[in-house]
């Protein structure tokens, strides 16, 4: 069995997991951070695309769908950031990470490739692990307000993006797809930031360094790898595997910024990863 997609997915998730630590530094606003995450990634990708001539313009239908993918992803990031600003990072991240559930439900009703039984079992176990990770008492404090709704919307947008991108990536090469989505994401977030009154410059040197790392590693490198995995793996499996970024981010936060890690968090992380591993038991398809 070809393990390259799984290795690519793991490294991609590792790259994404750095992002929450950088955001916690709060050197820029969430919205402008999202914009530069896309813009810097696009700026780094374009020279490579031009020199290697890897970009191939797809037919109009696929082009429009790829543009929609970029707007979906940008919307997910923007909505997620707003949810964090209006509530807490924990609540917003937890609800956004329900995306695998939405992927499974949407796949069941709208796609021929239905989720396997082990996906649903793995999802339930992974969600139990996620609940254990953040603490059961946390759920008693959830506020069912606008921030709650935005976080749920973020997860749904993320799920739709994964499913739509899976369809496009089966017909469009990875580099062309990334170029189109980054262009549409950047333009969309530029408009959002403009109307939100965000400043596009005047940041510290440390802020620019963090923005560059976000664009180069958390976006470009991460999503090239994840897009490759998405091409060669089930969308449901990829979406559930992305839950592990919470575990990795927790470990990195403990390692680099001295955030406390409790025994409960460790147990929750183990349960979550075990749930993800269940989805890889069935070997009929990669």
Automatic annotation (TrEMBL):
Keyword Transmembrane helix recorded: yes
Cleaved signal peptide residues: none
Alphabetical list of SUPFAM superfamilies matching this protein: Multidrug resistance efflux transporter EmrE
Superkingdom of the organism of origin: Bacteria
One Pfam family recorded for the sequence: EamA
Segments forming domain EamA: 7-133, 148-280
Keywords: Membrane, Transmembrane, Transmembrane helix
Sequence intervals crossing the membrane: 7-25, 31-50, 62-83, 89-111, 118-140, 146-164, 176-196, 208-226, 238-257, 263-281
Protein name: DMT family transporter
Protein species of origin: Flavobacterium ardleyense
């Amino acid at each position: 069995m070809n393990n390259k997609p799984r290795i690519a997915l793991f490294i991609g998730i590792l790259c994404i997991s750095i992002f929450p630590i950088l955001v916690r530094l709060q050197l820029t606003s969430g919205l402008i951070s999202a914009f530069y995450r896309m813009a810097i990634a696009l700026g780094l990708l374009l020279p490579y695309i031009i020199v290697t001539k890897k970009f191939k313009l797809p037919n109009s239908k696929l082009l429009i769908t790829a543009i929609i993918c970029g707007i979906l992803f940008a919307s997910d990031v923007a909505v997620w950031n707003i949810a964090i600003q209006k509530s807490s990072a924990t609540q917003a991240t937890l609800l956004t990470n329900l995306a695998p559930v939405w992927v499974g439900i949407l796949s069941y009703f709208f796609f021929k490739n239905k989720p396997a039984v082990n996906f649903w079992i793995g999802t339930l176990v992974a969600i139990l692990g996620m609940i254990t990770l953040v603490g059961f008492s946390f759920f008693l404090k959830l506020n069912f307000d606008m921030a709650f709704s935005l976080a749920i919307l973020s997860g749904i947008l993320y799920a739709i993006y994964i499913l739509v991108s899976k369809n496009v990536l089966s017909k469009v090469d990875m580099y062309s797809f990334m170029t189109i989505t980054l262009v549409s994401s950047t333009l969309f977030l530029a408009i959002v930031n403009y109307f939100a009154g965000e400043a596009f410059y005047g940041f510290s040197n440390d802020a620019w360094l963090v923005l560059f790392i976000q664009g180069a590693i958390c976006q470009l490198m991460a999503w090239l790898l994840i897009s490759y995995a998405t091409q060669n793996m089930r969308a449901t499996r990829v979406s559930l595997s992305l839950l592990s970024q919470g575990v990795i981010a927790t470990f990195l936060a403990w390692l680099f910024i001295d955030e406390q890690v409790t025994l409960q968090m460790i147990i929750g992380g183990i349960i979550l990863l075990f749930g993800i591993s269940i989805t890889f038991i069935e070997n009929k398809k990669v």
